[in-house]
């Protein structure tokens, strides 16, 4: 079983320092009965700490959760001998929030540093410090978002692994044989 990362880097992702959309896909060489889809939903809820909306039929499960700052979903399509798992997460709103919060915080700190430590009192002198503040703010914001995106991608990879283990009939890491946290 190998997880594929889908999609490509957008210009925004490159500028932000990390992806705003993550898509993972995996094929498991095992069928999975639809009457056990509730186990997948329980696992997703347990791992994400989110209740989502779910739709199920004889062959597929779709679980989705959305908020103002992120949306994520898991689709499981079960065949007789193969099960496909697709996981997506979109963090556009969260990226904007984190990026601009960090940006303006560092910009403010740069201005405060200039005013207090460097004793800049004139607008002209402050404007000379502005490019430094903008560059530092951008670099700090990019670092914050990159760290957040990497952490989220790791969490989503762990979720994918757990769902794949459940589908394959393996013991899910971190759970006992009944599917409860160990």
The mean pLDDT is 85
Number of helices: 4
Low-confidence stretches: none
What is the percent of helical residues? 40-55%
Describe the structure.
- The protein is α+β, with helices and mostly antiparallel strands.
- Helix content is 49%, strand content 21%.
- It is built from four helices and six strands, in the order E-H-E-H-E-E-E-E-H-H.
- It has helices at residues 11-16, 37-48, 92-116, 123-168, and strands spanning 4-6, 21-28, 53-56, 60-66, 71-78, 83-90.
- Strands 1-2-6-5-4-3 form a six-stranded antiparallel beta sheet, with helices on one face.
- Helix 3 (92-116) packs antiparallel against helix 4 (123-168).
- The longest helix is centred in the C-terminal third of the chain and has 46 residues, at 123-168.
- The protein starts with a strand and ends in a 14-residue tail after the last helix.
- The model has no long low-confidence stretch (mean pLDDT 85).
Give the SSE layout.
Layout: E1 4-6, H1 11-16, E2 21-28, H2 37-48, E3 53-56, E4 60-66, E5 71-78, E6 83-90, H3 92-116, H4 123-168
Antiparallel strand pairs: 1-2, 2-6, 3-4, 4-5, 5-6
Structural descriptors:
182 residues; 4 helices
Gist?
It contains 4 helices and 6 strands; from the N terminus they run βαβαββββαα. It has helices spanning 11-16, 37-48, 92-116, 123-168; strands spanning 4-6, 21-28, 53-56, 60-66, 71-78, 83-90.
